[in-house]
């Protein structure tokens, strides 16, 4: 990054603004899930059709986020971030102002894409605001905002929607978005893109280098293992563990808190021990899923195992983000959006894998399948542990060779 001004209010003010922004974005991601019945009834569409709104968001984030990150890589990070939050607020108001299912689908895809762009802009902006040796911990603060949304954002927004109508939750998100936009304009200084990241070709080459793709594959494996089990957690708790009714809500809340704590704790290792954190994290995740499978009939052990899944899965998220951006080097502006895409891909694969396992051998098989995938992730974490960024001298030689090759 080029030289920038000091953040108004200090680094903590910047982190607070980005945390709240991440919390709003994470809440928007989960919001529709908590109000599918209300949206379905109001728009006169089926529950499966309302569920496509969730798919639209995931596709927007997985593909639209990286695309927007690529085309804005050459722009000032502050301007991109402010623009992303402004678009987020506007897109959340669209289904409030116009009761049209098709427009709602477009808006949800747009919200997903702006979340991906927000992640990329926020995390690359932090590299210009905080000292390099603390960038990973700062990224962890932002990622914890997303984790906190699963613990608090979903139940609060769902409660608001059921009390005042589902549109009220979207209005609330838009209001928070405007507040985050204004606060970002106030506290975040201009953060120019680095000169090495100002061409799409350079972004693509560095962000999709084999070493980066290897860690993204690890990310996909981790979340495939998690979602294979957790997509079917509620029926598993009811049929295998015997936990039903309000107790299920308590277990889900405990899981949400565990993801928040895990993300916050994991950020402490993102700067200096990211590769090792991924190795231990995948081991912990595998053990947790195996315990959930082997002792599914025992309530206390099962709940502890579910908490362990949340702690280890989200505890790895800051290290994954730091690892990908570090390995991408000059391609960090685009690469910052890719772990979210990889995790969404893992979620989709995991849900399909778990469903297939259930079809063949029952609910417990989904958890076992998740444990097998997590064990594979252990191997991948060890294999990728020695990967290092491209040496500056190698990159300089490549840039020199390219124009010579073009002339010949």
Automatic annotation (TrEMBL):
<dbReference type="InterPro" id="IPR036259">
    <property type="entry name" value="MFS_trans_sf"/>
</dbReference>
<keyword id="KW-0812">Transmembrane</keyword>
<feature type="transmembrane region" description="Helical">
    <location>
        <begin position="105"/>
        <end position="126"/>
    </location>
</feature>
<feature type="transmembrane region" description="Helical">
    <location>
        <begin position="138"/>
        <end position="156"/>
    </location>
</feature>
<feature type="transmembrane region" description="Helical">
    <location>
        <begin position="47"/>
        <end position="72"/>
    </location>
</feature>
<feature type="transmembrane region" description="Helical">
    <location>
        <begin position="212"/>
        <end position="234"/>
    </location>
</feature>
<keyword id="KW-0472">Membrane</keyword>
<protein>
    <submittedName>
        <fullName>MFS transporter</fullName>
    </submittedName>
</protein>
<dbReference type="InterPro" id="IPR050189">
    <property type="entry name" value="MFS_Efflux_Transporters"/>
</dbReference>
<dbReference type="InterPro" id="IPR020846">
    <property type="entry name" value="MFS_dom"/>
</dbReference>
<feature type="domain" description="Major facilitator superfamily (MFS) profile">
    <location>
        <begin position="14"/>
        <end position="392"/>
    </location>
</feature>
<feature type="transmembrane region" description="Helical">
    <location>
        <begin position="357"/>
        <end position="383"/>
    </location>
</feature>
<feature type="transmembrane region" description="Helical">
    <location>
        <begin position="12"/>
        <end position="35"/>
    </location>
</feature>
<dbReference type="Pfam" id="PF07690">
    <property type="entry name" value="MFS_1"/>
</dbReference>
<feature type="transmembrane region" description="Helical">
    <location>
        <begin position="168"/>
        <end position="191"/>
    </location>
</feature>
<feature type="transmembrane region" description="Helical">
    <location>
        <begin position="79"/>
        <end position="99"/>
    </location>
</feature>
<keyword id="KW-1133">Transmembrane helix</keyword>
<dbReference type="InterPro" id="IPR011701">
    <property type="entry name" value="MFS"/>
</dbReference>
<feature type="transmembrane region" description="Helical">
    <location>
        <begin position="246"/>
        <end position="265"/>
    </location>
</feature>
<keyword id="KW-1003">Cell membrane</keyword>
